[in-house]
């Protein structure tokens, strides 16, 4: 690229060094094309209103959960002796620990609310209809994954309420014929809820489900990109 | 109007391939907005607003940390979080199916939950009215949707009360 002025949408860059740096990147990676396609020459439909933003907000809340979750992991210890104490420490001693845990706890509740609003909006305006059937299926999967994240995260502070809610929650599938007892055993990592259960829930909450959820969010977004945003009714 | 429908029915790659003049025309006619800077600023403001809500909620109602778990002390009332109350109540409701036999109360609740989730997943394939999107023209789908939402709300409230 040998030019006087670099045009990026409404931005004009005349600085020679900036243009040379940008040209070097563009020669090697073709960034101009990507930036034009994805940012500077991209248009979005004008008909999107208030009710259309809740999917995006759910996505942002997921990112917020990942970030606050990473910070909580710095101090949290997933052992039945230390879990409760380390969460108390996060709340009382760690600078802004109360805020990070607050944002994580409220974020999980808020994320479920925004997903529900998003689902109602998609249902009422019939956006699940062809060609977007598959994306509804992926979306419901994301809702269930979020419920799984909430269920496993709830136990981690090892409080009385969380412990007994998990006793009930893991007891429920045991009623199923043939597989029920086995499911309960697999969820608890034994007959009783104890250290193995906490380790297991911790691993599922911070690794397994976040990685799966992030991948499925990817599938959700790829489908939106391929099909475009649904038009007005 | 016909043109707008045409534009909004295009796939992402087709919109991307529109000539610059055409994009400018769509923006000029109010059918589309530029992603940069308008839309992107909108998104950032929206995210900032969500962060503000999280900070406000965490400050006004700080996250609660109950007492440490004691496996030898069963509390009187065990309630799940609000989003599991409806499922919890469906288990309680299933206790009334004992007229079908001793096996029913335990299994009917969890089976009902599985059926509900399966129906939710299959919504696009159960709704055979594939072309009409306006809610006013889909009385059955909307009625069933309201019924399901009401049931979820009522079950949640009953789950909290019972």
Counted up, domains of chain A total 2
Runs of chain B in which pLDDT lies below 50 for 5 or more consecutive residues are: 1-5
The end-to-end span of chain A amounts to: 44 Å
Tell me what the CATH architecture of the largest domain in chain A is.
Answer: Up-down Bundle
Q: Tell me the greatest interface.
A: A-B, 86 and 81 residues
What name goes with the CATH superfamily of the largest domain in chain A?
Cytochrome Bc1 Complex, Chain C
Number of helices of chain A: 9
Describe the structure in brief.
The complex is a heterodimer of chains A (233) and B (162). Chain A is mainly alpha-helical and 233 residues long.
Verbal overview:
The complex is a heterodimer of chains A (233) and B (162). Chain A is mainly alpha-helical and 233 residues long. Chain A has helices spanning 16-29, 31-40, 54-75, 83-92, 97-124, 133-155, 160-171, 180-188, 195-227; strands spanning 6-8, 11-13, 43-45. In chain A, strand 1 and strand 2 form a beta hairpin. The two termini of chain A are 44 Å apart. By secondary structure, chain B is mainly alpha-helical. Chain B is built from 8 helices and 1 strand. In chain B, helix 5 (85-94) crosses helix 6 and helix 5 crosses helix 8 (139-161). The model of chain B is unreliable at 1-5 (pLDDT under 50). The chains are: A mainly alpha (233), B mainly alpha (162). The interface between A and B is large, with 86 and 81 residues.
């Amino acid at each position: 690229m040998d030019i006087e002025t670099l045009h990026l949408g409404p931005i004009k860059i005349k600085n020679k060094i900036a243009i040379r740096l940008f040209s070097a990147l563009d020669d090697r990676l073709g960034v101009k094309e990507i930036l034009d396609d994805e940012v500077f020459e991209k248009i979005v439909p004008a008909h999107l209103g208030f009710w259309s933003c809740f999917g995006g907000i759910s996505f942002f809340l997921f990112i917020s959960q990942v970030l606050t979750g990473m910070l909580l992991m710095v101090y949290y210890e997933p052992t039945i002796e230390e879990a409760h104490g380390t969460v108390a420490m996060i709340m009382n001693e760690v600078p802004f620990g109360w805020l990070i845990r607050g944002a994580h706890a409220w974020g999980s509740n808020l994320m479920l609310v925004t997903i529900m609003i998003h689902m109602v909006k998609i249902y009422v305006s019939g956006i699940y209809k062809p060609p977007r059937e598959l994306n509804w299926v992926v979306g419901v999967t994301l809702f269930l994954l979020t419920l799984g994240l909430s269920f496993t995260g709830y136990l981690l502070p090892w409080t009385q309420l969380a412990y007994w809610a998990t006793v009930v929650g893991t007891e429920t599938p045991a009623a199923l014929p043939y597989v029920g007892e086995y499911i309960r055993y697999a969820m608890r990592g034994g007959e009783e809820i104890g250290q193995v259960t906490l380790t297991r829930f911790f691993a599922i909450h911070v690794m397994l489900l976040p990685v799966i959820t992030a991948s499925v969010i990817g599938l959700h977004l790829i489908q939106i990109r391929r099909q475009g945003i649904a038009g007005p009714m | 109007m016909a043109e707008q429908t045409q534009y909004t029915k295009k796939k992402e790659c087709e919109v991307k391939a529109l000539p610059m003049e055409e994009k400018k025309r769509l923006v000029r006619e109010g059918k589309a907005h530029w992603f940069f800077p308008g839309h992107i600023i909108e998104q950032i403001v929206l995210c900032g607003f969500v962060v503000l809500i999280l900070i406000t909620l965490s400050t006004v109602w700080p996250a609660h940390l109950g007492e440490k778990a004691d496996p030898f002390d069963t509390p009187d009332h065990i309630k799940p979080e609000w989003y599991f109350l409806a499922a919890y109540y469906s288990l309680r409701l299933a206790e009334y199916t004992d007229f079908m036999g001793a096996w029913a109360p335990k299994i009917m609740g969890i089976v009902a939950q599985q059926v509900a989730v399966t129906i939710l997943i299959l919504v696009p394939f159960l709704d055979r009215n594939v072309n009409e999107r306006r809610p006013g023209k889909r009385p059955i789908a909307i009625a069933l949707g309201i019924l399901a939402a009401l049931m979820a709300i009522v079950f949640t409230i009953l789950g909290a009360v019972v």
